[in-house]
Amino acid sequence: MNIKKRGFSLIELIVALAITGILLCAITSMFAYVGKQFSYCLKNNLYKYYADEAMKFIEMQIYREAKSIDVFDDKLILYKNNNKKDIIEAKDDKLIIKYGNIYFMSNDYNIITECIKEFSVHKSNNVVFSKIIMKDGSVKERCLHLKR
């Protein structure tokens, strides 16, 4: 009864550990790449959502609440009933709306959206053109026809 028991040699163990290490390294780098891409796409979608919501807010202010509109130096001035006046403008990297009346503008404001690079608005006849450029470079433009 001569039974030979053969175990793993040192070289076989080193080769198996090397293959396992290479596979783990490849899988880890793949997960890191996918996570980075997911984060990038999430940030881009967030910027696009911010720009869409800001444009919807501006449109709502123009169509529902404004009696008349004026544009001056990339500021959208909304005249409302009861001598109220709102101003939509860019301040630092935020798009804000200031509240006041035709005689006095207070320092109170609300933030419409953040992370903007540029906000421009101009009026031509009965059309208001507005454009928001976000920090990531995405651009949202809209033209709104004013009621007479």
Q: How would you describe this protein?
A:
- This protein has one helix at residues 10-65, and strands at residues 68-72, 75-79, 84-91, 94-101, 105-114, 116-124, 127-134, 139-145.
- It has 148 residues and is an alpha+beta fold.
- It has one domain (15-145).
- The strands form 2 sheets. The protein has a 5-stranded antiparallel β-sheet. Strands 6-7-8 form a 3-stranded antiparallel β-sheet, covered by helices on one side.
- The N and C termini lie far apart (108 Å).
Kindly report the oligomeric state of this protein.
Answer: single chain
Question: How many helices in DSSP terms?
Answer: 1
Portion in beta strands: 35-45%
Counting DSSP E segments of at least 2 residues, the number of strands comes to 8
Read across the widest sheet, the strand sequence of neighbours is 1-2-3-4-5
**Shape type:** rod-shaped
Largest sheet: 5 strands, antiparallel
Q: What's the average pLDDT?
A: 89
Structural class: alpha+beta
Q: Tally the structural domains.
A: 1
Termini gap: 108 Å
Whole-number radius of gyration? 29 Å
Regions with little confidence, pLDDT below 50 for 5+ residues? none
Helicity level, as a percent range? 25-40%
Order of helices and strands: HEEEEEEEE
Keywords: Membrane, Transmembrane, Transmembrane helix
Protein name: Prepilin-type N-terminal cleavage/methylation domain-containing protein
Transmembrane segments: 12-34
What key attributes describe this structure?
8 strands, 148 residues, 1 helix, alpha+beta
